[in-house]
């Protein structure tokens, strides 16, 4: 409840907003009418999806442009889209358009800045579409590769200078990186598991029942990259005060045995 400008505002748990003023009058009801998005760059998106073979999870778009590609991503994929640009007017226009369509904060978010200034956490995106940036130096390739998830995170860039990009990837010495070209589209993938990680393939870790991981990547100091989502649902697990079956991690997938439940979890949110 808020009081301002001589009026009393009440926000309900259902999401509606009521405004009460002085005296009696007839209530005015204003309903939100989502705006339909215009059709976007369908040909460009089809080429990207065909080469990257992914259409769900998280998508990072570097360079908003006129926003038409993002319109197509919303309409033709299941991605949660995170767009960045160094032009504050393009960021503001995208926010207003997606808010008017009822999608901002749900399917689409945007930030003002670049890959270098925003300092994203690692491994968070399934697909990165690089539009206003040519990652031709080793530092550029490292920044793009940094955000790609293991087991197939992919970045694509429309460029006529594929050989320069190939040199940048080679100089950056990116582990498990695979670079391919299809016409004017360059595709960079992070293949397989992260270096220094291993599977937990048995109840006690490995066939020897060692109950220990031989990972070398995970070490102190530790931090949280992400939390929540389907994998944190308490209904999936047995009582933690008893001895529940251990989660098994094989090939980038986590298998959980819960009460009358067996789930396979991959790609941060897909079950």
Give helix % range: 10-25%
- Overall 3D shape: globular
CATH architecture of the largest domain: 3-Layer(aba) Sandwich
Query: What is the CATH C level class of the largest domain, in words?
Result: Alpha Beta
Q: Sheet with the most strands?
A: 7 strands, mixed
Averaged pLDDT: 86
**What number of structural domains do the residues give?**
2
Give a brief description:
This protein is of the alpha/beta class and 271 residues long.
Report on the architecture of this protein.
The protein is 21% helix and 25% strand. With 271 residues, the protein is of the alpha/beta class. It folds into two domains: 42-190, 3-Layer(aba) Sandwich (Rossmann fold); 196-271, no CATH class. A hairpin with a 2-residue loop joins strand 12 and strand 13. The mean pLDDT is 86.
What is this structure's SSE topology?
Elements lengths: L1 E3 L2 E5 L5 E4 L21 H11 L3 E7 L5 H9 L1 E8 L2 H13 L7 E5 L2 H4 L8 E4 L7 H9 L6 E6 L3 H11 L4 E6 L2 E6 L57 E3 L2 E6 L2 E5 L6
Parallel strand pairs: 4-5, 4-7, 5-6, 7-8
Antiparallel strand pairs: 1-2, 2-3, 8-10, 9-10, 11-12, 12-13
Q: Which labels suit this protein?
A:
2 domains; 21% helix; alpha/beta; 6 helices; 271 residues; Rossmann fold; 3-stranded antiparallel β-sheet
């Amino acid at each position: 409840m808020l009081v301002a400008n001589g009026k009393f505002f009440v926000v309900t748990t259902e999401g509606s907003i009521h405004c009460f003023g002085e005296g009696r009058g007839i209530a005015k009801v204003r309903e939100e009418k989502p705006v339909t998005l215009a059709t976007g760059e369908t040909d460009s998106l089809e080429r990207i999806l065909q080469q990257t073979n992914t259409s769900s999870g998280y998508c990072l778009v570097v360079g908003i442009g006129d926003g038409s590609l993002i319109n197509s991503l919303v309409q033709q994929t299941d991605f949660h889209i995170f767009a960045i640009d160094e032009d504050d007017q393009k960021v503001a226009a995208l926010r207003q358009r997606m808010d008017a369509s009822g999608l901002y904060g749900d399917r689409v978010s945007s930030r003002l800045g670049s890959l270098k200034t925003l300092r994203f956490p690692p491994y968070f995106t399934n697909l990165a579409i690089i539009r206003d940036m040519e990652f031709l130096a080793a530092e550029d390739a490292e920044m793009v590769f940094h955000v790609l998830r293991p087991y197939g995170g992919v970045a694509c860039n429309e460029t006529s200078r594929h050989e320069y990009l190939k040199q940048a990837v080679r100089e950056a010495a990116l582990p498990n990186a695979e670079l391919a070209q299809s016409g004017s589209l360059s595709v960079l993938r992070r293949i397989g598991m992260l270096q220094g990680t291993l599977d937990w393939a048995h109840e006690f870790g490995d066939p020897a029942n060692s109950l220990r991981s031989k990972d070398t990547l995970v070490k102190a100091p530790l931090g949280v990259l992400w939390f929540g989502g389907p994998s944190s649902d308490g209904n999936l697990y047995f009582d933690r005060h008893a001895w529940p079956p251990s989660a098994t991690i094989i090939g980038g997938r986590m298998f959980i045995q819960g009460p009358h439940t067996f789930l396979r979890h991959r790609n941060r949110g897909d079950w």
